[in-house]
Amino acid sequence: MSFVEIKELSKTFGCSAALSNISAQMHKGQIVGVIGPDGAGKTTLLRLMAGLLAPSSGHIEINGLDTLGQSEEVHEISGYMPQRFGLYEDLTVMENLELYAELRGAPKTFDKLLQFTNLQPFTKRLAKHLSGGMKQKLGLACALLKKPQLLLLDEPSVGVDPISRRELWALVNTLLDDTISIVWSTSYLDEAEKCQTVLLLNEGKALFYGNPSDLTNKMVGRVFKIEKPENKRARLFSLFKDESVLDAVIQGADIRVIMQKNSMLPDAVETAPRFEDAFIDILGGSPMRVSPLSAAMPKMENPNPYPVVADHLTKRFDQFTAADQVTFKVQRGEIFGFLGPNGAGKSTTFKMLCGLLKPTEGKALIGGVDLQKAPKEARSHLGYMAQKFSLYGDLTPRQNLEFFAGVYGAKKETVEQMAKIFAFTPYLDKTSGMLPLGLKQRLSFAAAMMHWPSVLFLDEPTSGMDPVSRREFWMHANGLADHGCTIMVSTHFMDEAEYCDRIALIYQGKIIHLDTPDALKEAAKSEEVPNPTLEDAFVKMIEAYAAH
Predict the structure, then answer these.
(1) Smallest Cα–Cα separation from 401: which of 374, 388, 380, 383?
(2) Using only C-alpha atoms, what is the Rg of the chain?
(3) Degrees (nearest 5) of the Cα angle 535, 541, 543?
(4) Of 223, 357, 226, 235, nearest in space to 277 by CA
């Protein structure tokens, strides 16, 4: 007998259908992944399962309890961790646990939970001072206070670094037994492969329900790798001119290609498919085959061979050193990845390189110009897209872009041009703060490009974005780099890091490794892991440095 029964479920908000005719059965002892892009209906489904929303039609039963008519009983046997950190940032870890236990009528015995989540050393720390991973662990601890039979986790790994993601998955797998059913929603398609069952959603409709390997295996014989092409970006663009190519992405020095059924790629070798390949196939292939942004880009005027130079950059906040002697050079037309755990010093270094933070020591050069000596001239060469949406939420996209056009001295017609390029013309006069995440990211990218900078800083630009939107973003990035724009990008997506020409790995404020993605994977090889992924290399190098 199924523990969760979802039957012909639909939910509308006004004229918009968030979910349409969803049916599924879930059993105890399983992790069920609710997978899909931004706006697919994942959060709506979890809120309906938690009894926080009423269905428009259809119904959900949790252990025989109807979520609409018996919502209080459903709350008693379920734990819900919302998408965004929903606890009190001005309270300590312990105060949050005590308050949540009081509200849920749970016993105030936290020793096992604190041990389980490794939060014992941080009970007196304010929640706002926790790292992203630690905040998620605190949210998980609160959701587990009443030992739920149904645990609902809404995108718990968004914005969390690979080490913290692994820790979260290890914690959740430890919970799994025949007394609990766990639902984990995510837009990270690699996480689907960690689940026993997945419900794949897109635009509120169910595309697939079942074992993820059943869908992945349908792609056998259709995924190929072109090994070390001479010019990987030029080859990538040429592949998209071939109608038999469904999708292609850079993977280190190689290119990964998905072909139409019954199509072959002569100079490539077959490689194992991933769940993401199957998802892209269901959607009909890559949504963008050429970047209109790079096509519109004027010729780069700054011919400096090293447009970005960090020279012993150091930043101290009282006794804390956030960045320590950070040194590197980025070549013209290079995509340079900046990776590290939460709190490693990525954003601090970015802000120093953009002139938003004054270094304690060292210097930053942009286009050969010292940011401290000639900040206005140096900033004229760069565009910056912040980690979180940092435009004016109360203004419309049109007003935001007109403001940036004025700041950078750009032509007003650039506003309409960017709206067309990034496909948000219908939203130009909406309120920016109310836009979906994907559109907010496009707007931020457009604002950073208003003056056609020769250097672009992108701080976790695709965090929380779905695979389709991320592919569009990287098509633009590759096109810009091919036109000579220099790009520095930080990301928690290890598959995205493979798109970079070189990667600097930062930990505790120091650069601990700097090399190509393939070289980093080669350095991480061992008898236990003969073919490491970039995530394997990331985790191994961080742990080795921490142990040292």
Answers:
(1) 383
(2) 24
(3) 100
(4) 223
The structure tokens listed for 167 are: 């820790």
The two beta strands, 254-259 and 223-226, are: antiparallel
Backbone angles phi, psi at 102, to 5 degrees: -65, -45
pLDDT in tens, 29-41: 999 999 987 778 9
**pTM for this predicted structure:** 0.85
User: In the 8-state DSSP scheme, what is residue 185?
Assistant: E
Report residue 134: phi and psi, to 5°.
-70, -35
Residue ranges, the chain, pLDDT below 50: none
**Which residues, in sequence order, are bridge partners of residue 383?**
456
Q: Nearest-CA neighbor of 400 among 419, 381, 382, 386?
A: 419
Conformation bin of residue 343: beta by default, left when phi > 0, alpha when psi is -120 to 50: left
Find the helix packing angle between 232-239 and 467-482, rounded to 10°: 120
What DSSP string describes 293-347? HHHHPPPP----S-SEEEEEEEEEETTEEEEEEEEEEE-TT-EEEEE--TTSSHH
User: What pLDDT, on a 0 to 100 scale, did the predictor assign at position 464?
Assistant: 65
Q: 132-143 and 93-104 helices cross at what angle (nearest 10)?
A: 30
Q: How many whole angstroms separate alpha carbon 212 and alpha carbon 200?
A: 9
How much is the pLDDT for 302? 61
Contacts of 180 (CB under 8 A, 6+ apart): 28, 29, 148, 149, 150, 151
Q: How is 494-545 classified by DSSP, letter by letter?
A: HHHHTTSSEEEEEETTEEEEEE-HHHHHHHT--SS-SS--HHHHHHHHHHHH
Q: Are 126 and 155 in contact (CB under 8 A)?
A: no
In angstroms, rounded to a whole number, what is the distance separating the alpha carbons of residues 242 and 80?
46
Render pLDDT for 411-447 as a digit per residue (tens, 0 to 9): 888 999 999 999 888 999 999 988 877 788 889 999 9
Report, in this order, helix, strand and coil percent for the chain, each rounded to 5: 35, 25, 40
Name the β-bridge partners of 254: 251
Taking residue 389's Cβ as centre, other Cβ atoms within 10 Å add up to 16
Write the DSSP string, 38-99: TTSSHHHHHHHHTTSS--SEEEEEETTEETTTTHHHHHHHEEEE-SS--S-TTSBHHHHHHH
- Give the Cα separation of 378 and 114 in Å (integer): 48
Q: Are 281 and 470 in contact (CB under 8 A)?
A: no
Instruction: Write the CB contacts of 3 (distance below 8 Å, at least 6 apart in sequence).
Output: 26, 27, 28, 62, 63, 149, 150, 181
Residue-level pLDDT at 293: 94
Sheet of strand 486-490, all strands in order from the earlier edge strand to the far edge: 382-385, 455-459, 486-490, 335-339, 502-507, 510-515
State the pLDDT at residue 513: 96
Kindly state the DSSP code that residue 109 receives in the 8-state scheme: -
Residue pLDDT, tens place only, 50-100: 999 999 999 999 999 999 999 999 999 999 988 777 788 899 999 989 998
Q: Strands 4-13 and 16-26, how do they pair?
A: antiparallel
What's the DSSP call for residue 126? B
pLDDT of residue 398: 93
Closest CA relative to residue 491, chosen from 532, 441, 449 = 441
